[in-house]
Design goal:
Layout (H helix, E strand, L loop, with lengths): L8 E4 L2 E4 L3 E2 L15 H13 L4 E3 L8 H10 L7 E6 L1 E3 L5 E3 L3 H15 L4 E7 L13 H12 L3 E7 L3 H10 L2 E5 L10 H9 L3 E2 L14 H10 L3 H12 L12 H8 L8 H11 L6
Parallel strand pairs: 3-4, 4-5, 5-8, 8-9, 9-10, 10-11
Antiparallel strand pairs: 1-2, 6-7
The structure holds NADP nicotinamide-adenine-dinucleotide phosphate (NAP).
Length: 293
């Protein structure tokens, strides 16, 4: 039996979660649009994640849209007290599956209400404001207006904690001056290390850093150094990629995504994998060139 608590815990605001969690995005249909290929198997993945000790699930109402939230509700409601559901707002899907920015007060407010209704809860544990100033990744621009709207929804008791996603260091700084930010969710993995300095800053402030695409996203990571390290350790490359993140900083929380029970089990087992320092040094070379300080 996998014991994911071996990887420890970290705070998400007033909650504390295990460092190995689960990201639900892959449960929707192709392109994160429409229903899953196999609904029963999607429900089984969610139920097994919880049965294996996962207490942190990342989702959004715009996955599907509504699909992953409906699956979570069907598989897991009524939710156990220890489960922390983290959602995100700031986008709307077009009829063609496109991802469109949605930052007006009206859009943000309806997104919070949609998440509440589809997850069937009265308050959202954590809501990430997901920025979309550029389709290429984080881009500068003030976040004051949307964050103030989200702060208002928090004061109404609809949102317990606020996080930021797809943000620059400057936006994190601006956000922290406006609201109590409990987590940052950005693109980061072995090969994509632009946020190295930000992660360390957030660790110092006890703010969780939750990498999205921890395995490389829609095209999982491939590297000879990763494959060699995995072979030497008797693990899989994806397990090594996750173990590297766990060892990278104590405030990193994992939300690897999968629609496969086998992959879920494999990913959760990474909680138990310790990388020797020589392996970490070799793996560090993969993304060194992308680090920004
Ligand atoms: N804030 C944001 O902008 C944002 C953006 C993207 C994602 N997210 C969140 O971050 C979570 C994680 O990101 P992600 O799911 O896109 O990417 P990911 O976790 O890096 O990788 C998922 C991909 O890896 C495959 N995979 C998973 N485990 C595997 C294994 N053990 N062996 C081989 N392949 C494996 C999955 O396919 P299978 O289904 O076949 O396993 C899927 O194609 C999402 O679920 C979502 O909640 C947030």
């Amino acid at each position: 039996m996998i014991d994911i608590s071996r990887a420890g815990t970290f705070a998400l605001g007033t909650r504390r979660v295990k460092r190995v969690g689960y990201g639900a995005m892959q449960l929707a249909g192709p392109g994160v649009f429409g229903p899953p290929k196999d609904r029963q198997s999607a429900l089984a993945v969610l139920r097994e994640a919880l049965a294996s000790g996962v207490d942190h699930i990342d989702t959004s109402d715009y996955y599907g849209p509504h699909v992953t939230n409906h699956l979570i509700r069907e598989a897991l409601h009524p939710y156990p007290d220890n489960l922390v559901l983290v959602t995100k707002i700031g986008a709307r899907r077009g009829a063609d599956g496109s991802w469109n920015p949605a930052f007006s007060a009206e859009h943000l407010t309806s997104a919070v209400h949609d998440n509440l209704r589809h997850l069937k809860i009265n308050a959202l544990d954590v809501v990430n404001l997901r920025l979309m100033f550029s389709a290429q990744g984080p881009a500068e621009g003030s976040i004051e207006a949307p964050l103030t709207v989200l702060g208002g929804l928090q004061r109404q008791g609809l949102v317990r904690h606020i996080g930021l996603s797809n943000v620059t260091r400057k936006q994190v700084e601006e956000g922290r001056a406006i609201a109590d930010i409990v987590c940052v969710q950005n693109h980061y993995n072995l090969a994509h290390r632009e946020d190295d300095a930000l992660i360390d800053e957030l660790a110092g402030a006890a703010i969780a850093y939750v990498p999205f695409f921890p395995l490389g996203g829609f095209t999982p990571l491939q590297s000879s150094a990763l494959s060699e390290a995995a072979k030497a350790l008797g693990a899989t490359p994806m397990q090594v990629a996750l173990a590297w993140l766990l060892q990278r900083a104590p405030n990193i929380l994992l939300i690897p995504g999968t629609a496969s029970l086998d992959h879920l089990r494999e990913n959760l087992a990474a909680a138990d994998l310790k990388l020797p320092s020589a392996a970490v040094a070799a793996l560090d070379q993969i993304g060194r060139a992308t680090a920004r300080h």
